[in-house]
C-alpha cells in the first residue's frame, strides 16, 4: 500500500486560521452586553469548524459548519482533530461543547462519498482519520458535552456517544442512532463498545442489528441521550451542565473517566492497523459498494 499522509501532514495542508474574538452566534462574545470590554476569549476557525474558547470559564464551543449535512469527510475529520488537539493542549480550556451551525442536522455521519468509488489507499487514509477522531474525543481529558441540535445518524451518533454528556433538542423529527446496518454496512467493534458503554448490551445489540434510528423522545427513554430541552434552552442547559461537571477537581474526574474508558480505547490502539485493513477489505467489496450506491440513490430519490 502506498505511503499514507499522516495527521501531521494533513494538519500542515489544512491551514487553520487563528481569529481574535470571533463573534459566534452561540458564543460568549455574542452574549456580551454592548459597550463592555470583552473578557479574555480566543477563537479559531477553519473551513468546516468554528471554535471559541472563553478563557474566563475555561469552556470552548465547537460548532460544525459543513453544509448541507455536516458529513464527516476526511477534511472535516482533519479539522476536528486539529481543533480538539489545540484545545486539549491549551491549559485555559477545561471543557468543550459540540453543536451544529447547520439547521436541523447535528451530523449526518461519515461521508459516504469517502467510502464509495475510491482507491484502497483513500479508504485506509479515511479510516485512520475516523479512528483518530474517536481516539481523541473518547480519550479527551476535557469535559465534553454534545448539544445535539439536529439529527445525528451513525458517525454523528458516535460523536455524541463519545462525549461525557448528551443534551438533545426535544424535536421528535430529530433522530439519533447507529443505523449502519440500514446501509448494508457494519458498525466496527469500537463504535459498538462506545454504544454498549452508554446504553447497555441488550439495547445496543438490538439497535445495531436493526440499524435503529430513534426520535429524540425515544432516545431519552433508554439513555441514548441524557436530557431533552427546547431548542432555545439548549445553550443555557449545556453551559449549566458544564459548570456542574467543572465544579469537580480535574484530576479526580479525569482519572475516573480514564478508568471507565481505557479498556475500550486500548483495544483499538492495540488493533489499529488490523482495523484499517478490515475496513478496507470490507468497504471495497463490490457487494458493499453496491449497497452504498443504492443508499445514496435512495437519499436523492427521497428529495424528488
Ligand atoms: C465482522 C466484519 C466487520 C467488518 C467491519 C469493518 C469495518 C466497518 C465497515 C464500515 C463501517 C462504516 C461506518 C459508517 C458510519 C457512517 O456514519 S455511514 C453514514 C450514515 N449516515 C446516514 O445514513 C445519514 C444519511 N443521510 C440522511 O439520512 C439525511 O441526509 C439527513 C442527514 C437526515 C438529512 O436529510 P435532509 O435534510 O433531507 O438532507 P438530504 O437527505 O437531502 O441530504 C442533503 C445532501 O447531503 C447528502 N448526504 C446526506 N448524508 C450524507 C452522508 N452521510 N455522506 C455524504 N453525503 C450525504 C445527500 O445525498 C444530499 O446530497 P445531494 O444534495 O442530493 O447531492
TrEMBL record:
<keyword id="KW-0276">Fatty acid metabolism</keyword>
<comment type="similarity">
    <text>Belongs to the enoyl-CoA hydratase/isomerase family.</text>
</comment>
<keyword id="KW-0809">Transit peptide</keyword>
<keyword id="KW-0443">Lipid metabolism</keyword>
<keyword id="KW-0496">Mitochondrion</keyword>
<dbReference type="InterPro" id="IPR001753">
    <property type="entry name" value="Enoyl-CoA_hydra/iso"/>
</dbReference>
<keyword id="KW-0007">Acetylation</keyword>
<comment type="function">
    <text>Key enzyme of fatty acid beta-oxidation. Able to isomerize both 3-cis (3Z) and 3-trans (3E) double bonds into the 2-trans (2E) form in a range of enoyl-CoA species, with a preference for (3Z)-enoyl-CoAs over (3E)-enoyl-CoAs. The catalytic efficiency of this enzyme is not affected by the fatty acyl chain length.</text>
</comment>
<protein>
    <recommendedName>
        <fullName>Enoyl-CoA delta isomerase 1, mitochondrial</fullName>
        <ecNumber>5.3.3.8</ecNumber>
    </recommendedName>
</protein>
<dbReference type="GO" id="GO:0004165">
    <property type="term" value="F:delta(3)-delta(2)-enoyl-CoA isomerase activity"/>
</dbReference>
<dbReference type="GO" id="GO:0005759">
    <property type="term" value="C:mitochondrial matrix"/>
</dbReference>
<comment type="subunit">
    <text>Homotrimer.</text>
</comment>
<dbReference type="InterPro" id="IPR018376">
    <property type="entry name" value="Enoyl-CoA_hyd/isom_CS"/>
</dbReference>
<dbReference type="InterPro" id="IPR029045">
    <property type="entry name" value="ClpP/crotonase-like_dom_sf"/>
</dbReference>
<keyword id="KW-0413">Isomerase</keyword>
<dbReference type="GO" id="GO:0006635">
    <property type="term" value="P:fatty acid beta-oxidation"/>
</dbReference>
<dbReference type="Pfam" id="PF00378">
    <property type="entry name" value="ECH_1"/>
</dbReference>
<comment type="pathway">
    <text>Lipid metabolism; fatty acid beta-oxidation.</text>
</comment>
Amino acid at each position: 500500500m502506498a505511503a499514507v499522509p499522516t495527521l501531521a501532514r494533513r494538519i500542515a495542508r489544512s491551514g487553520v486560521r487563528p481569529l481574535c474574538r470571533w463573534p459566534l452566534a452561540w458564543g460568549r462574545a455574542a452574549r456580551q452586553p454592548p459597550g463592555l470590554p470583552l473578557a479574555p476569549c480566543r477563537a479559531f476557525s477553519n473551513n468546516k469548524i468554528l471554535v471559541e474558547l472563553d478563557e474566563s470559564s475555561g469552556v470552548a464551543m465547537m460548532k460544525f459548519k459543513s453544509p448541507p449535512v455536516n458529513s464527516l469527510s476526511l477534511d472535516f475529520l482533519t479539522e476536528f482533530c486539529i481543533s480538539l488537539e489545540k484545545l486539549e493542549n491549551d491549559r485555559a480550556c477545561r471543557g468543550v461543547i459540540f453543536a451544529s451551525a447547520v439547521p436541523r442536522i447535528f451530523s449526518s455521519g461519515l461521508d459516504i462519498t469517502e467510502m464509495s468509488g475510491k482507491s484502497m489507499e483513500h479508504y485506509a487514509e479515511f479510516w485512520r482519520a475516523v479512528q483518530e477522531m474517536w481516539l481523541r474525543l473518547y480519550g479527551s481529558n476535557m469535559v465534553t458535552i454534545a448539544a445535539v441540535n439536529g439529527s445525528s445518524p451513525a458517525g454523528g451518533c458516535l460523536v455524541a456517544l463519545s462525549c461525557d454528556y448528551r443534551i438533545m433538542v426535544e424535536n421528535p423529527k430529530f433522530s439519533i442512532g447507529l443505523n449502519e446496518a440500514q446501509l448494508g454496512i457494519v458498525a466496527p467493534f469500537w463504535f459498538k463498545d462506545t454504544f454498549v458503554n452508554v446504553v447497555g448490551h441488550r439495547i445496543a445489540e438490538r439497535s445495531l442489528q436493526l440499524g435503529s434510528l430513534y426520535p429524540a423522545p425515544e432516545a431519552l427513554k433508554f439513555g441514548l441521550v441524557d436530557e431533552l430541552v427546547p431548542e432555545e434552552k439548549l445553550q443555557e442547559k449545556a453551559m449549566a451542565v458544564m459548570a456542574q461537571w467543572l465544579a469537580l477537581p480535574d484530576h479526580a474526574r479525569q482519572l475516573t473517566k480514564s478508568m471507565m474508558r481505557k479498556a475500550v480505547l486500548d483495544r483499538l490502539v492495540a488493533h489499529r492497523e488490523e482495523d484499517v485493513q478490515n475496513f478496507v477489505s470490507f468497504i471495497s467489496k463490490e457487494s458493499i459498494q453496491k449497497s452504498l450506491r443504492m443508499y445514496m440513490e435512495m437519499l436523492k430519490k427521497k428529495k424528488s
